[in-house]
Every structure is written in C-alpha cells, then in structure tokens.
Inverse folding.
C-alpha cells in the first residue's frame, strides 16, 4: 500500500519529474516498498518518517523494488542519502551490481565491533555484488569476505548498500548500520542532555576526572550515580579523588549522587564485622557475586552501617543519594540455596515468633519443615521477605530524609528490580514495587525500575508495557525512570553479547518515550561507536523541520537543535545556546538567524528551563530565566557574570571556573527565577 501511495503522489510517469530543492530536514526518511524494520532503525536516533520522497532527506529502497526513471544520482549529489537493500534496479544503476552468486552468512566482521562478535542467529544467503569505484566496505562476511555493508559518497550526499534485510526488529544483523550511514556524511538532528548514568569507580580509578566529565556531558549525561561503597572508610587518596570527581562533574554541568548498594557496605566493613554478616539458606556467610551482604536487622549492626552512611553523605558535596537494590539475593531462587537470603539469627528468631518454626528448616532436606513438603511454610517465608524489604526501605528512607533536611538540594532515588512485568521477582528476591511506591508522597523520592534479565529477550518494546503498569500504581509517575542494563549477556539470540548499535539506540529511545527519565548501567558500558549518537537516541520531539533558513521543533522534553551563529527563537533574541546548539525547553519553537551576538550566553543547564530571555539591567544587559530542579541546578555561562539575583534578591551562588573561561553556577533546588547581569565592558 505504501508503494501505491508513493506512485499516486509522485505521478504515474515516474519520479524523474520531481523538483529537488534543498533538504527540508536532516531527520526525514521515506521507504520504497514495505516498511519492515526500517522505521524502528531510523527513528531510534530521532529521524522521522514521511510518505513522499520529495519531502525526504533519506530514502530506503527495499530489495527488488522498482523506482522507474527517477534520477537517484542527482538526488544524492544534491545532499541527500540513499540506503539500498539487496538487489534492485536502483542498486544496479548506482554501481552495486549483482554477480548472480550468493554467500551464506552466519557471522560478520566489523572493525568497530572491538572484540564484540557479531553472530546471525538465523544464517542467510546474501547476494554477492561488485561495488562502484571509491566505495568503502564497512562490514564483510567472516568466512568469504563478501561485502555486507558498503557505502560511497556522491557530491554532498551518500549511498549505503546493505546486503540483506536487517531483521524483524532491526538489530538482528548489522548493529552498526547507523554508524555506517553517518560516516558517509549523514547529519543527525536533535540532541538531549538529560541522561542519568551509574559510575563504577573500579573501572575508572586511573582516569582523569576532568576528562571523563567533559566526555560524559558531551554524550548527554546529566546525573552521575557514583559507586560509594569504595569510599565508606576515610582514605586520603580516595577521598581526594572523589572530591575531584564531584567538582569536575559540577564544572561540566553534571550532578553527582552517592550510589548505595545496601545490604552491601564495603569490603573493609565485611572484614571488620564478621558478626554482622548476612547468612544464606545454607547458613553460610552471604558473599554473593560481588555483594557482601550485611545483617541490617540486627540493631547493633544497623547502627554501625548508619554511622558509615551518614559520614559518607556528609563529607562530600553530593547532590543526592540512590538507595539501590535493597532486596534479597538471588534471582535463581531455590535452584541455588547459596544465594537465598536473609537467614541471619535475628531474622530467624523473628520469623519463628510469627510462624512457629525456624525458616532455616525450609532448606534442610532432613527436616519435617522442608520446603518440598511444606509449600505453605515456603510462601510464608516469601511473604516475610516482602514485608522485611518494605520495612528496611522505610527505615533507610527515614535516615536519608534526615540527611536531606540538613543538606540543600539533596535528592533521594530508589533503584528497584521491577516485579510488575515479571511477578516472579516477588518470591525470588522479595520485591514489591507497588507497595513501595505508596511511600513516594511521604518521602518524595525518585523511583527507577530496573528490568530483570528474564525480560531482556523481549526487546525494547517491554518498556512501553512497563510504563503502562507503573502509571497505574505510581503516585508520582513524573518522578520515575527506567534503568537499562547495558551488560554482556550469555545468549546468542542477539547479534552481539553487549547491547550496542541499533539495539542500544532502540533501548534508549523507546525507554525515553515510555518514562520521564532514562538511567544507564553504566557510563563505561557505552561503547565507543555508540557514544556520538547517544544524544540523538535520547532526544524526543513530536516534529522537527529545517528548510535551509529556519528550524521548527516541538520538543516533548527539553532538547537542542544544531545551529551555528546567533539565533532568535519565536522572533525574540535567544541567549540559551552554545557554539553549535540552540537549547530549548519542551514545546514548540521556531529558530531563525540573528545578526548580533548575545552579551551573555547560557550555554548549558542541568535542570528544567521554563523560559529564557535577554533583559535590560540598568545601563547594561543580561539574561533572565525560570527553572525547576529536583536537586541542585547547574548553569554554565560563556563568561564570568556580573551581579546575580535569585527570586529578585541579590545572591552569590558558588561559581566554578572552567578551563575555557566559562563559568558554572551552582543554583538551589526547586523552582526559581534568576537574573544575571553581563560583565561590564
């Protein structure tokens, strides 16, 4: 049907009669033939599908599709792009000529894979073609060296040839297809700087924090949740590193949160407090994977942990805390009793008081209470764990709320393995998200759901289903986010063990469509080929148009539009821009060129901007803006400012000098009106 629609609009005599003007936008694509997975691939980095070829900057021609007499050479040379799938008349005419032979492909080689094997779960026969002069081969068959992905520049545009259908979801083959397209000169469009990410010190301890922070912000990271268990005990060298890391984050517009992993505290705490160690179902010390679990039920042990937590949160300039994964091991359940917790003495006494028997007997095959013959007792154990994890959360939320009362702009987040899509987690780890979310109004915490590995095979669409379930139970869905686990997977059902390329972009894009915020585990898992397109995958707009002179956009969340030179927005001077991007709040805007440079620019902002304008201040000028922030906000100015007013009162917020002469301002949490004077000339 799409093909019929095209021919009706283009004219039955062929596409050659179409008038080619300048590209309307770097984000519009059209497809000749059935859509297949191409919309999923191309929209994952912000591109938008249109019906007519004359409205598109990028056209995909599916295998076997005829396009009559349209001049594709002229199309490409004018600055547009083509993706040719398999064998077609258009591919033949542009120099990708079929030899009549095929190659059976099951594994591909891509220099960007960096050791990440690319395996086709379903091997396929692909055409062997000869390539036009000057073409570059991006991907080839591991065994025959047959070209699978190749491209060539023509004028200011380019042509990408793909040997086969990319797969039903778009990521079963050619994970770096989008990167290949961009390497031919295709330009991305919208940007976002709202991504949250975990940070594991053990992977980065020797890397310069300033270098890392600059790179993170360029990738769109707004908030870094730092593995704090390495810093529980005071250590001059580590404390100095963490202080520099937090300062580097703030200078570069990134918030820094302490990431807790209770009941794990630290290696040293485990060594120094053997009597506080948690026990598993075998009554052994519960050192499970990397987490060394402590008994948080025992009053003395809990008090020791609380002192460490309060000290950690007090001695560093944190913007918040993430209480992550405060539930029980392990997701394999009764298949591995060494992972089943908690079975400490305090818990066992309390359980016996309630249910009349020692829960350790559930896991003793010689006991009359053994779980195989005592299903009711086992269900009581599972319910007890759900009740206990809820109680532990209330206790620790009380502690964190007290810390927040003593620190300004301090946010509380809970990261939790979700159990609505996979209710088995309720028995396996004691999860109960719906019950825990009822505490949200009292404690005002942000809630992150982490999808269990049991759901990874369901693909990116799972996030839309999860959002529907959590909207029904979350008092503040606007304070929810989803945590994407970007880790190696022991499965060949994906082309790569590590989420990368098209699959990674789809995960980010679909989760941002479903939830207000997206968290990544972890920043070090973002592979080098993916980093340049992460901002685009995360940006979300209802519409974007560019006609060569002005841009129009309708942002769902705040974002940025590539732009060179001064700009007006909706007809008024706009000072919220960097050298290459105009940054905008959510909503509809039109950007046009401006002759004069703003006297002062807001080049970056970590928070939610509601409005920005240039203002007259006495005999001088400056900028004013309204913002909202759940924790501290960070504003980056292109130069050292003059006077600053917050809510009409002169203020002196902390200013952090940056290497390029710009300045980061640390502003209070909440909703505020800020006026900043440009420096006197």
């Amino acid at each position: 049907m799409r093909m019929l629609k095209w021919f009706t609009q283009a004219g039955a005599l062929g596409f050659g009669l179409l008038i080619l003007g300048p590209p309307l936008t770097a984000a519009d694509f059209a497809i000749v033939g059935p859509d297949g997975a191409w919309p999923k691939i191309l929209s994952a980095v912000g591109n938008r599908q249109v019906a007519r070829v004359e409205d598109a900057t990028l056209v995909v021609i599916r295998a076997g599709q005829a396009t009559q007499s349209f001049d594709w050479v002229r199309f490409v040379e004018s600055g547009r792009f083509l993706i040719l799938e398999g064998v077609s008349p258009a591919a033949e005419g542009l120099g990708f000529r079929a030899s009549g032979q095929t190659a059976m492909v099951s594994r591909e080689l891509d220099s960007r894979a960096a050791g990440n094997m690319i395996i086709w779960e379903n091997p396929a026969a692909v055409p062997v073609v000869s390539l036009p002069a000057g073409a570059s081969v991006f991907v080839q068959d591991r065994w025959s060296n047959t070209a699978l992905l190749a491209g060539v520049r023509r004028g200011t545009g380019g042509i990408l040839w793909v040997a086969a259908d990319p797969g039903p979801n778009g990521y079963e083959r050619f994970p770096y297809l989008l990167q290949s397209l961009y390497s031919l000169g295709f330009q991305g469009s919208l940007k976002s700087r709202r991504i949250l990410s975990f940070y594991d010190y053990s992977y980065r301890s020797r890397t310069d924090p300033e270098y890392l922070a600059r790179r993170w912000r360029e990738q769109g990271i707004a908030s870094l949740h730092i593995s704090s268990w390495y810093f529980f005990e005071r250590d001059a060298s580590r404390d100095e590193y963490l202080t520099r890391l937090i300062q580097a984050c703030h200078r570069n517009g990134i918030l820094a949160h302490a990431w807790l992993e209770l009941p794990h505290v630290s290696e040293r705490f485990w060594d120094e407090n053997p009597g506080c160690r948690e026990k598993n179902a075998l009554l052994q010390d519960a050192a499970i994977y990397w987490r060394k679990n402590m008994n948080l039920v025992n009053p003395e042990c809990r008090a020791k942990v609380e002192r460490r937590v309060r000290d950690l949160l007090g001695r560093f300039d944190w913007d918040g805390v993430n209480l992550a994964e405060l539930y029980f091991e392990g997701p394999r359940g009764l298949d591995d009793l060494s992972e089943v917790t908690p079975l400490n003495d305090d818990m066992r006494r309390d359980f016996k008081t309630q249910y009349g028997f020692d829960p350790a007997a559930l896991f003793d095959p010689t006991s009359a209470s053994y779980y195989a013959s005592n299903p009711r007792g086992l269900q009581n154990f599972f319910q007890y764990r759900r009740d206990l994890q809820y109680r532990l959360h209330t206790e620790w939320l009380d502690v964190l709320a007290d810390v927040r009362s003593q620190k300004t702009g301090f946010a509380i987040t809970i990261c939790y393995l979700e159990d609505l899509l996979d209710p088995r987690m309720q028995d396996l780890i004691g999860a109960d998200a719906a019950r825990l979310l009822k505490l949200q109004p009292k404690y005002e915490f942000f809630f992150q759901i982490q999808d269990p590995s049991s759901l990874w095979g369901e693909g990116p669409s799972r996030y839309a289903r999860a959002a529907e379930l959590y909207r029904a139970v979350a008092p503040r869905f606007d304070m929810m986010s989803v945590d994407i686990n970007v880790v190696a997977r022991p499965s060949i059902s994906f082309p790569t063990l590590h989420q990368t390329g098209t699959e990674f972009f789809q995960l980010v894009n679909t989760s941002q469509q479903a939830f207000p915020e997206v968290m990544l585990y972890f920043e070090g898992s973002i592979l080098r080929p993916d980093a340049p397109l992460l901002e685009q995958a995360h940006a979300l707009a209802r519409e974007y148009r560019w006609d060569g002179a002005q841009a129009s956009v309708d942002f769902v969340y705040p974002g940025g539009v590539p732009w060179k030179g001064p700009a007006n927005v909706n007809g008024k001077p706009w000072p919220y821009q960097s050298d290459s991007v105009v940054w905008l709040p959510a909503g509809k805007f039109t950007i046009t060129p401006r002759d004069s440079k703003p006297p002062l620019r807001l080049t970056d902002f970590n928070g939610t901007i509601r409005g920005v304008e240039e203002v007259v201040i006495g005999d001088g000028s400056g900028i004013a803006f309204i913002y909202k922030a759940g924790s501290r906000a960070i504003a980056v100015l292109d130069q050292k400012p003059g006077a600053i007013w917050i809510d009409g009162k002169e203020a002196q917020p902390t200013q952090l000098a940056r290497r390029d002469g710009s300045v980061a301002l640390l502003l209070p949490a909440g909703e505020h009106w800020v006026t900043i004077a440009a420096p006197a000339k």
Summary: The two ends are 64 Å apart (CA to CA).
